[in-house]
Amino acid sequence: MKAKTARLRQSATIEDVDYRAARGLDKSMFLKLTSADWIRRKHNLLITGPCGVGKSWLACALGQKACREDMSVAYHRASRLFTALALARADGRYAKLLKQIARVDLLILDDWGPETLTSDQRRDLMEIVEDRHEAKFIIVTSQVPVDQWYKIIGNPTLADAILDRLVHNAYRIELTGDSLRKRKPAQPETARA
């Protein structure tokens, strides 16, 4: 049931991770993350790399594992979460939505960046990160390397505060390589009548 409420984007499992794929995934570190001990210690996880190397899939596999460990999980694409927060701010549900986000054990913030955040988005991200700091944890996936996140946040003071809380206790997976989607056989076009 927890996996259904998590609304994970992919039906991925840790048992199905392909360690042979040429993407720089450290098998021993990932297996350490599958123990869910890092979750109990409230560490964050940052997964970066180019498009198609499996960032979202790995995050969802870990999210599914957390669900099996009886933890609550919420998956959000970053752009859609910021849109939902803007709508909630406009109709008076903002505090309630922030409370819901703060309550889950694991927040997966998928596909963060590369656009510079607006002032409202910066404040939203600060609220989310502050609510979760040393209490709950976050998995962030991004095509943008962590050393460029400061620029994406935009405001130096908020960037310092957000990244200090998000990055200092985080495990990092930095994937490389070509898109794994290229390995899948192309679907034949349907015949036109």
Which key features would you list for this structure?
193 residues; alpha/beta; Rossmann fold; five-stranded parallel β-sheet; 9 helices; 5 strands; 12% strand; globular; disordered C terminus; IstB; ATP binding; IstB_ATP-bd; AAA+ ATPase domain-containing protein; P-loop_NTPase
Describe the structure.
- The chain is built from nine helices and five strands, in the order αααβαβααβαβααβ.
- It has a single domain (29-175), classed as 3-Layer(aba) Sandwich (Rossmann fold).
- The protein is 45% helix and 12% strand.
- It has a five-stranded parallel β-sheet with strand order 2-3-4-1-5.
- Helix 7 links the parallel strand 3 (106-110) and strand 4 (137-142).
- It starts with a helix and ends in a 19-residue tail after the last strand.
- The longest helix is centred in the first third of the chain and has 14 residues, at 55-68.
- With 193 residues, the chain is α/β, with parallel strands linked by helices.
- Helix 5 crosses helix 6 and helix 7 packs parallel to helix 9.
Largest sheet at a glance?
5 strands, parallel
Task: Supply the CATH class.
Answer: Alpha Beta
Taking the alpha carbons of the first and last residues, their distance comes to 44 Å
Q: What is the typical, i.e. mean, pLDDT?
A: 88
Name given to the CATH homologous superfamily: P-loop containing nucleotide triphosphate hydrolases
Secondary-structure-derived class: alpha/beta
Which segments are poorly predicted (pLDDT under 50) over 5 or more consecutive residues? 188-193
Number of strands: 5
Strand order of the largest sheet: 2-3-4-1-5
- The structural domain count equals 1
**CATH fold category name:** Rossmann fold
The H-and-E topology, N to C, reads as HHHEHEHHEHEHHE
- In percent, how much strand structure appears in the residues? 5-15%
Count the DSSP helices. Answer: 9
Shape assignment: globular
- Please estimate the helix content: 40-55%
Determine Rg (CA atoms, Å). Answer: 17 Å
**Shape-level CATH architecture:** 3-Layer(aba) Sandwich
GO molecular function, one term: ATP binding
Family: Belongs to the IS21/IS1162 putative ATP-binding protein family.
Organism: Asticcacaulis benevestitus DSM 16100 = ATCC BAA-896
Pfam families: IstB_IS21
